[in-house]
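Fold it.
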Amino acid sequence: MSLLQRTLGRTIEATTLLGALAVALMMLHITADVLSKYLTGTPMPGTITVVSNYYMIVVAFLPLAFTERQNGHISVEVLVEHFRPAPKYWLNIFALLFTGAVFAMLTWQSVIEAGRSYRSGAFMIEQDMKLLIWPARYLLPLGCGLMTLTLAAKVVIALVRGRRLDAEAPYF
């Protein structure tokens, strides 16, 4: 396994761990908010903003590459399952390339949007509390960019090694 594959694999594992940590923190944060509301009569300020602009973004986008690495995304193979191995292989390569191109465009556009958000100093006000939301805008390009790199790595590995795309085993 090359240094690039190991580095990509470790990065994917780290971002997935961050996603799992975000789930736990979100659960604790929401529990504390509910307890605060029922015990003191006032909810914790900023909970909705932090949950929707930080935790949810981390949970939804950072583990994308892990799921792709594990071949865990949904695929419908109604016709393809009847193809011979060679056409099936090339169709899978095409699907990876197409998906990679879409995620590359998502990465690019989300970087542009994150830059706009940073320059404007985007924030939200909740219960008289100003919360910066522009830092969270950089999480989307991080997740989409890692997904793009994962797809590119799978294509290169498949082409260089001539390896058939195995739906069961990760490539790295």
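The chain has a mean pLDDT of 90.
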